[in-house]
Specification:
The chain is α/β, with parallel strands linked by helices. The protein has 21 helices and 6 strands. It has a 6-stranded mixed beta sheet with strand order 3-2-1-4-6-5. The N and C termini lie far apart (70 Å). The model has no long low-confidence stretch (mean pLDDT 92).
């Protein structure tokens, strides 16, 4: 809102309203992810960048750089925002010393390392993580990813493209009227498009969130031509904001529905005896079952000996254990199936109990698994595990299925199988 007021002192706060009801922002805010912290710092940075562009105070260079540095440390997908301050300085109608830009970039670096001090404290581990990221499976269809990224820009404020059309109109207007400001807003956006188009998961809409303030400002520029008449504003608000409000409300209402993960958890606790051995799907796709104390102690010792800090988590689980629970194992998935870095995946799987069941039920029986809980959100989608699931369906006994229902029940399809042990 403040940034928009810097561009246009009067008129409706279109940019703020578009961001307020943008479905990707509303949906992401419902999860414990760093993207919303990044968006907060990005909004601060964009507002301060307009102060750098229009103003003449040295402190705005420092504050702008620090805000974008904190944004980049919160979520590395914000790295293209590093271009905003140099562009705002270079294209500003006011001439300022180059030293101000250097100080602002230093503040950016300071903000980045203040938010991620481990990079300096343990640089080899950080660099190992970065190189591991480069080993992730990559989608070679860059044209398709580019199309997805452009679609995310087009529909940034909702399923209808009206806000995207307004952003295109605003960009065209700025390119004619004030090319310097257009460069500040469009330059980082082009960098986002280029970077995400070559990223393995660049089509994910939340990876574009650092650029949404700029897109919203462009859309506000386009919508500002509608004038200030109440009737026109009301009609435009319904057409431009309505689809985003509707989709955000629909996704938020899903949080009030029963969820198959909670339903299957309640059923298992009521029907499966404590101490049973259960093979579970990946965490986000399975019921949240309680691990038995003995297993928590075993994993605490295992991770302590391996040097993993996770041993403190397992120790805390054991010290505050309420009793009962199950011996839990996870179906081991490849890094490609998880969409994760290879070394990170191996390290994480070494810190819990997983079972490699690609060859079938033999590995599950070796662990004396009594029950298998599978989900169409997780392991069932893996081509590597097709033999396991074929054998499970033929030799296991399906006890219960939990199915989502549009408008009534959320979550994945979850199936609970009983597994007989071979004599």
């Amino acid at each position: 809102w403040r940034a928009e007021r810097r561009l246009r002192p009067d008129g409706p706060p279109w940019a703020a309203l578009l961001l307020l009801f943008a479905p990707i922002i509303v949906t992401t805010a419902q999860s414990a992810k760093p993207d919303c912290l990044m968006l907060f710092f990005a909004c601060c940075g964009w507002a301060l960048a307009l102060e750098v562009y229009h103003g003449s105070e040295r402190r705005f260079h420092w504050l702008c750089g620090a805000a974008f540095g904190l944004a980049m440390s919160s979520q590395y997908t914000a790295l293209p925002l590093g271009l905003v301050l140099p562009l705002a300085h270079a294209f500003s109608p006011r001439r300022r010393p180059l030293s101000w830009l250097i100080e602002g970039l230093a503040a950016c670096a300071a903000g980045f390392f203040a938010g991620s001090p481990y990079i300096l404290l343990d640089f080899p581990n950080f660099w190992s993580s970065i190189t591991d990221l480069g080993q992730m499976p990559r989608d070679t269809e860059h044209l398709r990813t580019f199309s997805d990224v452009m679609g995310n820009i087009w529909a940034f404020a909702g399923p209808w493209p009206l806000a995207g059309l307004a952003a295109a109109a605003g960009a065209a207007r700025l390119l004619r009227r004030e090319r310097g400001l257009a460069a500040v807003l469009l330059g980082p956006l082009f960098a986002y498009v280029a970077l995400l188009s070559f990223s393995p998961f660049g089509g994910n809409a939340r990876y574009l969130m650092g650029a949404t303030p700029a897109i919203a400002l462009l859309a506000a520029e386009g919508l500002s031509r509608l004038g200030k008449r109440p009737a026109i504003f009301l009609l435009a608000a319904v057409l431009v904001l309505g689809p985003g409000i509707g989709l955000s409300l629909s996704r938020s209402l899903e949080l009030t529905w029963p969820d198959t993960r909670a339903q299957s958890e309640d059923w298992i606790v009521a029907n499966v005896p404590a101490g049973a051995v259960i093979l579970l799907d990946t965490g986000h796709a399975a019921p949240n079952l309680k691990m038995m104390k003995e297993q928590a102690l075993e994993l605490a010792e295992l991770t302590r000996l391996s040097g993993s800090p996770r041993w403190r988590l397992y120790r805390g689980m054991a010290e505050h254990h309420p009793g009962g629970g199950y011996r839990l194992h996870r179906i081991r998935l490849s890094a490609a199936d998880l969409g994760s870095e290879p070394r990170h995946t191996l390290r994480a799987q070494a810190e819990t109990s997983t079972a490699d069941v690609r060859a079938g039920l033999k590995a599950a029986r070796a662990l004396k698994v009594d029950y298998v809980v599978s989900s169409n959100y997780g392991a069932e989608r893996s081509a590597e595990l097709s033999a396991f699931f074929a054998q499970l369906r033929s030799e296991g006994r399906l006890l219960r299925s939990f199915m989502p229902s549009p408008g009534k029940i959320a979550g994945p399809e979850i199936r609970v199988y009983a597994l007989k042990h071979e004599r």
